[in-house]
Amino acid sequence: MEILMATTSHADHGGLGMHADLTQYATRTLDFLNIIEKTLKSVTEEVDLIQTLTAGCVRHTAKIRNLAFKQELDPAGRISELLAKAAASAGRSYEEAIAFRNSARADTALHPDDGVVECFEGLVAALADLHNSIEDLRDAVEIHDSLLSPVTGTYADVEALIASLKG
């Protein structure tokens, strides 16, 4: 709305001030393009960081699945708990990124060639990958530890197993 108001014709001002109106329009346009550029840079840097975290999760998951460790990694369950919290945080960030992407899609001031929607789509995808890689890592830790934990007995049925777990 402000940009449209800044482009009123010189007839609206009796021929005076047209140069000022055009200058104001150009300045606002340059400011808007600067905001787009800063947004793209910031989101791209965030995506790069998220991809680095994802790669670390994938690397550690592969090590654990290849049984590179010969003892339990998380006998107290603390690592699993922290990974669950990290996955939940990535999930919340994913939902926020979807909202940002949808907002960019709905913003009529943005043009398709600005790249903002695509940039946020990249963020959404990176956060989904991070969430999934954290969950894979948590699963790998839990499965690894269950395979290395000592067998505590055999059970005739499920009820007996549940009773032994309750203590």
How would you describe the shape? Answer: elongated
Helix/strand-derived class? mainly alpha
Radius of gyration: 27 Å
**Percent helix:** over 70%
What's the N-to-C terminus distance? 68 Å
Tally of DSSP β-strands = 0
Strand content: under 5%
User: Helices and strands, in N-to-C order?
Assistant: HHHHH
Mean pLDDT: 85
Stretches where pLDDT falls below 50 for ≥5 residues? 1-13
Instruction: Please tell me the total number of domains.
Output: 1
Q: Can you count the helices?
A: 5
User: What profile does the largest beta sheet have?
Assistant: none
Structure description:
The chain has 167 residues and is mostly helical. It has helices spanning 2-6, 18-65, 78-106, 116-148, 158-166. It has one domain (39-166). Helices cover 74% and strands 0% of the residues.
Element layout with pairings:
Blueprint (H helix, E strand, L loop, with lengths): L1 H5 L11 H48 L12 H29 L9 H33 L9 H9 L1
Helix pairs in contact: 2-4, 3-4
